[in-house]
Each structure stands twice: as C-alpha cells, then as structure tokens.
Amino acid sequence: MATDSLPSSSSTTEVPRPAAGGVATPLLSLRGISKHFGAVQALYAVDLDLPSGQVTALCGDNGAGKSVLTKTIAGIHQADEGEILWEGRPVQIRNPGDAASLGIETVYQDLALADNLDIVQNMFLGRERLKGLVLDDGSMEGAAAETLASLHVTTVRSIRQPVATLSGGQRQAVAVAKAVMWNSKLVMLDEPTAALGVAQTRMVLDLVLRLKDRGLAVMVISHNLNDVFEVADRIAILRLGRMVAQDSVKAFDRQSVVDYMTTGSTSRAPGAPTAAAAPRPD
Ligand SMILES: Nc1ncnc2c1ncn2[C@@H]1O[C@H](COP(=O)(O)OP(=O)(O)O)[C@@H](O)[C@H]1O
Ligand SMILES: [Mg+2]
Fold this sequence. Notes:
Elements: E1 28-37, E2 40-50, E3 55-59, H1 66-73, E4 81-86, E5 89-91, H2 96-102, E6 104-107, H3 119-123, E7 130-131, E8 134-135, H4 137-150, H5 168-180, E9 186-190, H6 198-213, E10 217-221, H7 225-231, E11 234-239, E12 242-248, H8 254-263
Parallel strand pairs: 3-10, 3-11, 6-9, 9-10
Antiparallel strand pairs: 1-2, 1-4, 4-5, 7-8, 11-12
Bound molecules: adenosine-5'-diphosphate and magnesium ion.
C-alpha cells in the first residue's frame, strides 16, 4: 500500500523542479480558497503562489481579506473550499502545528510577544530546550544570539532584556528572528511596518530582504506602496475577498496597484498582469 512513496525515477511530475521557462514550482500554492464567517464571505476562490527566494507583497484595502488569507495559511482558519499545495503536493493545514511542521511561521500584526519575558524566553516560548529536567539556558542564549547576529540585528543591548523595553523595530526584529530560528521555509508578516518610524521600517525591510536571500519564501502584507516597491518581487492584490491581480512587480506601477486595490482593474499600460501572454511594451 506504500506505492505512493516509491521513487519515480522516470516520472517528471513528482518532484518540484523548474518547469519549462525556468519557473520553479512555488513553495506554496493556494487554489480556489474560499472562506466565510456567517454571512460574511471573506475569501472567494483565491489563488496565490508563494515562490521560495522571493518576496510576495499581499496588498489590499482594509477588509480585503489579507489577514484571513494569512491565517488560513497559518492554520488558524480552515478554508471552506479549495486546495493548498506545498512544494507541488496537496497538504492539509488544520491547525498552527501543521503549519509549523511544514515550516510556515507568521509574524502577526499584533505581535505575539510576551512583554514580561526577555528576548531568549520569547524566542523559545513553548519550544524550550531542556538539559535533563532544567532549561538549557546556555544553548538557548547561544542560538538566539546567533540568529539575531545572522540577521544583522545589532541594536539590541542584551538578549536578556525584557521585550517590554524594546523599541517597535526591535520587537519586530525579535519576532522575525523567532520565526526564522525554526528552520522555516515560509515567513508571513502581517503589516510589519505599520507602527514603525522611518529608521525602524528600514531595519525591518532589510530583514525581509535577508530572509529572501536565505532562500525563504516571504509574504509581506502592506498597504505602504513605498515598502511594497522596495522589497517585493511579486505583488498579489486582494479586493473584497477576490484576488484581482498577481504578477511580477515589473507588471505594476504605483497607480496600477492603487487602481486594482480600489476598483479591481486598471487601464494603465504596464498593467494587464493577469493576462500572462499579453506582450508588454518596454
Ligand atoms: N473572525 C471573523 N469573524 C467574522 N468576520 C471576520 C473575521 N475575521 C475577518 N472577518 C471579516 O472578513 C473580512 C476580511 O477581513 P481581514 O482579512 O481582517 O481584512 P484585511 O485585509 O484588512 O486584513 C472583513 O469583512 C472582516 O470583517
Ligand atoms: Mg489585516
């Protein structure tokens, strides 16, 4: 009965690999994902691709469904319909544990950090390392410091500092470091710069680019178009629960993103991003 695990030396469809045209199978693909809450239809048959080594910006006005979509991928919500493909294979994400075991980590809008705990405690919350029956503080401190250093987070004075004493940007950095410490393959950030000043925003955007350079798939929710055009390789735009455009950042300009967000279409020349075959005048 274990035939589905047989290696398929001759098959070309089993293993995710670059398809014709050099486009690799996305790490995560959503197909036809719908979700309602009572009378509210939050998502209508949404398709989304999140490739490794690329930043996908998820844009949309308030209430467009960005957070619901993120939480569906994170296993907090269950889709009513549709399919989730991970490395090209159908998977079920029933709860946050399923998401974590695939390698999906989420940094939420309302940062889920415990103010009274220090940085190390936060990064290992719920996944503490033990040495015998006691916490292995040395090992956890080492791993936390190493992860922060690898992300070039240098402004934190002490990793034993309570999170309440950190600036907004530093808190984001700790939340991102926490997410990447667990061998994640996909990191989703919901409005990571919404509450930040200019310098802190810069730091978080740099972090996002570092995650991408490490080969992770990154999804960033933002309605700050400066941030979007600074870090995104791809843009996906939700409007009233529908995916109205999704393509390489090159297919958009600021005005067309705004058009899609507000009206669901654009008449601008670089647009027509969903019409893949349309020639683009350069
Ligand atoms: N838990 C919930 N129960 C009922 N309605 C919800 C829930 N979460 C989100 N919604 C609704 O789904 C829609 C999309 O919300 P959301 O994904 O939070 O939008 P945003 O794009 O601003 O993140 C909104 O109409 C919102 O009111
Ligand atoms: Mg939201």
